[in-house]
Structure prediction request, 313 residues.
Amino acid sequence: MNALITGGAGFLGSHLVDRLLLEGWDKVFVLDNLITGSLSNLAHLESDPRLVFHEVDVSESVAVEDPVDFVFHFASPASPDDFTRYPIEVMKVGSLGTINALELARTKGAKFMMASTSEIYGDPLISPQPETLWGNVNSIGPRSVYDEAKRFSEAITMAYRNYRGLDTRIVRFFNTYGPRMRLDDGRVVPNFIRQALLGEPLSIYGDGSNTRSFGYYEDVITGVYLLATHNYQEPVNIGTEEERTILEFAHAVINASHSSSEIIYLPAAIDDPKQRRPDLTRARKELGYEYHVELEEGLFKTIEFFKAKLGLA
Ligand code: UDP
Prediction:
């Protein structure tokens, strides 16, 4: 089996590369323009001939000469800070990049997986969120570039499935964390861990009552692999039910890193979803998916990674 992973130098993409190679796939082609991905995420595979890296913007072209059996479209900046840093790039990779990746899958006769997101539910009106929820999304707000790009990418993935006969999958990731996240990506996990390790105050946006469900990358990549190897074509939520308020999460990080940092409250972010937790009924029923890593354990491993990055290990 040969795979092509757009965004394969990113946080989740590079963990997927590792998983496919571990599972014995023959070749993995990685296409990444490195605006948020990093070659350091693939450095341990430098001498592995099964990995082929191309530095390319997949919004412009997605091409390889070799046979490809599975295309995973994982390229996109994914942090709310990136949505203001790279708004046009986010929209392009979700629209043009998705079309390019779908077309490549079509011409190669390959299966296709779209990496989508819980953001398509917007600020959800019910919790937990089942896949049948349509979403409560502001089409012109600061997060809209990502939300609408991903909604477009889901729609066109279904169109290729229904009208072009493509064998497609859609995975909806919830908040995922672990080693290889960028220290400065602006999301709550790297921000809080960095602040805790450096003894700086942890910055809560708003009153800390928003909730998120934090999934460790190992569980999430297992969900991706299960979806790739099952024949199920409706969207599937993948994540954990480890739901915490952001205030609880701040305390969890302070405890896990033995930090004496304080907490400060900053203005709330605009259009920030108030709650987020996946309904995993479909993932369990269709894929036999289950998560195993508890927050405290995942945080411990992630903190070790950030310590090394900060030269504190
Ligand atoms: N957040 C926070 N402080 C930070 C970064 C984020 O309080 O330094 C909050 C943010 O407002 C949101 C939650 O943490 O309610 C998760 O934010 P993140 O950027 O990690 O991702 P999101 O789930 O919003 O895509």
